[in-house]
Amino acid sequence: MKIIVAEKISDKGMEVLQASGAQVDLKLKIPREELLAIIPDYDAIVVRSATKIDEEFFAHAANVKVVGRAGNGVDNIDMTAATKHGVIVVNTPDANSVSAAEHTIGLMLASSRKSPQANTAMKNRIWDRSPFTGTELYRKTVGIVGLGRIGALVATRLQAFDMKVIAYDPYIADSRFEKFGVEKKETLAELMQEADFLTVHTPKTKETLGMIGKEQFSLAKKGLHIVNCARGGIIDEEAIAWAVTEGIVVAGGVDVLQDEPATTSPLFDLEHIIQTPHIGADTVEAQDNVGVSIAHEVLSALRGEVVPNA
Ligand code: MLT
After folding, report:
1. How far is it, in rounded angstroms, from Cα 226 to Cα 199?
2. 296 lines ligand 1 (CB under 6 A)
3. Counting Cβ atoms within 10 Å, is residue 2 exposed (0-12), middle (13-18) or buried (19+)?
4. Is 260 considered catalytic here?
5. Which of 20, 141, 143, 279 could form a disulfide with 164 if both were Cys (CB 3.0 to 4.6 A apart)?
6. pTM for the complete prediction?
7. How many Å apart are CA 170 and CA 167, to the nearest integer?
């Protein structure tokens, strides 16, 4: 068996793959044309979010039987094309959820206390407290869009800050809202009207792309704080810039951009929107979990065994 690892996974994950006796080739950041040229030699590929696994890929990947997505979101993989070509796609939906939830809360705290901006001032040898007056989370209302794995982890953690947690998720049973002590909002509009803090935790689909735009921001209270650790564009980037100029959004943390890796974005010039380069899942623990899980899943799928996250 030949497996190509096209994006970095943890050493522990690599060890699991290598221990199987398969030939494992680590080919990081290879140009697309090169990947397409060598892919016919491989039985499986392991990727994260940067590699587009689309119809063109499958047309070249005659021997690929398994695509392993080391992580949760599969928006870089054309699932219809995978099915058409008889390729199994496996991912690791639970392995990095805690890290993503913690990064969400980290960005919420950091942006509401302007900690990165204060840090930059200090590093420039400027001691001045006055620009950095922040906002407490205590007794504020946080609106969560998407009460799946990560949304629920964020909800329970923010309850410890004495926040009121409301959520909008038309795909989730009422019992899940009850289980997590979260107030259900029937519409996104209601959530937007009530939230002091907004965080999104949905996959990127045709339905969720741009789901928070100017129209939704227009419903919000002035002074809204936002976080996007899910996928770029779920909160529309132009709309964020507009909402900042209108005084609707006053702070925020964004880990993901619509076009990654990104060198331009309307968010780059917004002082109060802090940004990180899609590192929500980048912790030692999450990467070990993800690497080991995806390695086992890819090997099981190649052996024709039952795979939990196929
Ligand atoms: C995920 O979908 O698992 C995260 O966004 C992290 C990643 O893309 O690797």
Report:
1. 6
2. no
3. middle
4. yes
5. 141
6. 0.95
7. 10
37-77, pLDDT tens digit by residue? Answer: 999 999 999 999 999 999 999 999 999 999 999 999 999 99
Q: Is the CB of 72 under 6 A from ligand 1?
A: yes
Q: How far apart are CA 117 and CA 11, in angstroms?
A: 35
Q: Among this protein's residues, is 231 annotated catalytic?
A: yes
Instruction: State the complex-level ipTM.
Output: 0.95
Spell 90-114 as b/e; 16+ CB within 10 A means b. Answer: bbbbebbbbbbbbbbbbbbbbbbbb
Cβ contact 99:285 at 8 Å = yes
Superfamily for the 97-275 domain: NAD(P)-binding Rossmann-like Domain (3.40.50.720)
- What's the half-sphere exposure (Cβ side, CA atoms, 13 Å) at 10? 22
Q: Please identify which of the residues 69, 201, 225, 231 carries the catalytic annotation.
A: 231
With CA atoms as reference, report the closest residue to 149 among 94, 99, 70.
Answer: 94
In angstroms, what is the span from residue 148 Cα to ligand 1's centroid?
Answer: 15
Residue 95 Cβ inside 6 Å of ligand 1? The answer reads no
Question: Which of 47, 49, 287 gets mutated to test ligand 1 (max ligand atoms within 8 A of its CB)?
Answer: 49
Residue 281 CB coordination number (10 Å): 26
* CATH node for 2-93+284-302: 3.40.50.720
Q: Domains of the chain: which residue ranges?
A: 2-93+284-302, 97-275
